[in-house]
């Protein structure tokens, strides 16, 4: 008997309305045809050059993220719930960031302490008291969601620094429309193609230069970065320049881009490099990825940075535990989206519980990402758990623990048959001075190994296209 929710089949074992057209399509399509389409999809991705880098392995570091051709489907009502919850949560996170780097009303109210904020690794002291456009710090947020029941969605992580994956969301849709045009003709799927335009509008909203259109650039660490394809893709889609640190200069506290026609003023930088490397005068002195003087220009209000330095404070896994209270404190509302129960191992009582229940829990580094540095207790050997326990005891404040959720499954083309595999969902939330924008859907990540709960591409996971139906039922 299943102990997890299946996206396609309800608890009664019947096909859910949202998947009616998909179930009929799968029933009518032989597995050899699906395999042919899967191979065609792989060729398309290779031709486009959609890869990511894995630096922990030897040999060729470039990998093609496995793509599953069976879409994940949400009906209009499900998406409406998620959309409202996402807007609420990201609004609260931005309020918290503005408060943490400002007057700290949440501390005065006794909800958090100054030490709690100041001691977080992602806290950026250089941002204290800095005025940012619209009080918005995380302009591009990727919120990782998991499902455990028909109406049960949990936030697993808030990615508020430089979330990646949106290029895969867009390319997945383009490939699916090319491979299965007849299926799209039968099912009313909400489009995601407007994301680059929404992103550009969000970035432009951060500044209002007099007498000229805002100049927006994407700042990349360069071609050896694991997400370089996405940096280049988004710059192309928005019609803006992709620059590296050597391409920009700061003069008179203003930022300029070097061009063949001379220097051009830059008003907004969508930066895809970490805080530490933005400006060697303000952060790491050995950085060659950013530009000297960039932070001074930013503090003077002469350039906007998205996301703002220090935004990572809001996605620290130790801060995550307090987001529901932030929703209540800043918005006066009850959270629409649930948090996963979390134990902060810096707390002695929590640590003792975690140590006694390692075989039941998932333990994560507070600053970890990509599935690295984590323990999935139920799937780990005793030897692995014992070794991890020693790491945990040496540095407990670096870890949090959560119960092992029964992630929902979605039909996946596994070899020659369709089989359920666990999935999560990362929608992308854009917050500008002029409001919040979310395209319907997001990046569905899938654990391709039977029984695995790890969906990260760096850990062997893959991706799916995410369909949000225009209306309930079959989407017509």
TrEMBL record:
<feature type="domain" description="Circularly permuted ATP-grasp type 2">
    <location>
        <begin position="71"/>
        <end position="447"/>
    </location>
</feature>
<dbReference type="Pfam" id="PF14403">
    <property type="entry name" value="CP_ATPgrasp_2"/>
</dbReference>
<dbReference type="InterPro" id="IPR016450">
    <property type="entry name" value="UCP005522"/>
</dbReference>
<dbReference type="InterPro" id="IPR051680">
    <property type="entry name" value="ATP-dep_Glu-Cys_Ligase-2"/>
</dbReference>
<dbReference type="InterPro" id="IPR025841">
    <property type="entry name" value="CP_ATPgrasp_2"/>
</dbReference>
<protein>
    <recommendedName>
        <fullName>Circularly permuted ATP-grasp type 2 domain-containing protein</fullName>
    </recommendedName>
</protein>
């Amino acid at each position: 008997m299943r102990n997890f929710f299946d996206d396609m089949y309800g608890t009664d074992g019947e096909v859910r309305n949202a998947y009616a057209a998909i179930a009929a399509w799968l029933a009518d399509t032989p597995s050899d045809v699906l395999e042919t389409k899967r191979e065609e999809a792989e060729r398309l991705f290779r031709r486009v050059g959609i890869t990511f880098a894995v630096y922990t392995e030897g040999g060729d570091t470039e990998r093609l993220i496995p793509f599953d051709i069976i879409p994940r489907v949400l009906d209009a009502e499900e998406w409406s719930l998620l959309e409202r919850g996402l807007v609420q949560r990201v609004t609260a996170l931005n309020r918290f960031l503005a408060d943490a780097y400002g007057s700290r009303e949440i501390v005065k109210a006794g909800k958090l302490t100054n030490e709690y904020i100041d001691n977080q690794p992602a806290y950026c002291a250089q941002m204290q008291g800095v005025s940012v456009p619209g009080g918005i710090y995380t302009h591009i947020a990727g919120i990782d969601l998991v499902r455990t029941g028909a109406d049960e969605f949990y936030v697993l992580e808030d990615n508020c620094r430089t979330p990646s994956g949106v290029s895969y969301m867009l390319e997945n849709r383009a490939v699916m429309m090319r491979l299965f045009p007849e299926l799209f003709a039968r099912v009313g799927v909400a489009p995601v193609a407007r994301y680059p335009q929404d992103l550009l509008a969000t970035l432009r909203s951060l500044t209002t230069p007099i007498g000229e259109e805002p100049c927006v650039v994407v700042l990349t660490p360069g071609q050896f970065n694991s997400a370089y394809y996405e940096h280049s893709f988004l710059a192309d889609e928005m019609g803006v320049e992709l620059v590296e640190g050597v391409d920009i200069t700061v003069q008179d506290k203003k930022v300029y881009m070097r061009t063949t026609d001379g220097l051009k003023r830059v008003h907004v930088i969508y930066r895809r490099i970490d805080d530490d490397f933005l400006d060697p005068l303000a952060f790491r002195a050995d950085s060659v990825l950013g530009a000297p003087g960039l932070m001074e220009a930013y503090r003077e209000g002469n350039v906007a940075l998205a996301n703002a330095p220090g935004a990572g404070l809001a996605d620290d896994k130790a801060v995550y535990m307090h987001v529901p209270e932030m929703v209540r404190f800043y918005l006066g509302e009850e959270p629409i989206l649930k948090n996963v129960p979390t134990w902060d191992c810096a707390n002695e009582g929590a640590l003792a519980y975690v140590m006694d229940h390692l075989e039941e829990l998932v333990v994560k580094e507070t600053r970890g990402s990509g599935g690295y540095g984590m323990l999935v207790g139920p799937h780990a050997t005793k030897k692995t758990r014992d070794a991890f326990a020693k790491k945990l005891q040496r540095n407990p404040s670096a870890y949090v623990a959560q119960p092992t959720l029964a992630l929902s499954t979605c039909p996946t083309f596994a070899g020659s048959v369709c089989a359920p595999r666990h999935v999560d969902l990362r929608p992308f939330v854009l917050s500008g001075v002029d409001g919040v924008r979310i395209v319907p859907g997001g990046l569905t990540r899938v654990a391709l190994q039977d029984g695995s709960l790890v969906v990260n591409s760096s850990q062997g996971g893959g991706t799916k296209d995410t369909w949000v139906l225009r209306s309930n039922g079959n989407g017509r």
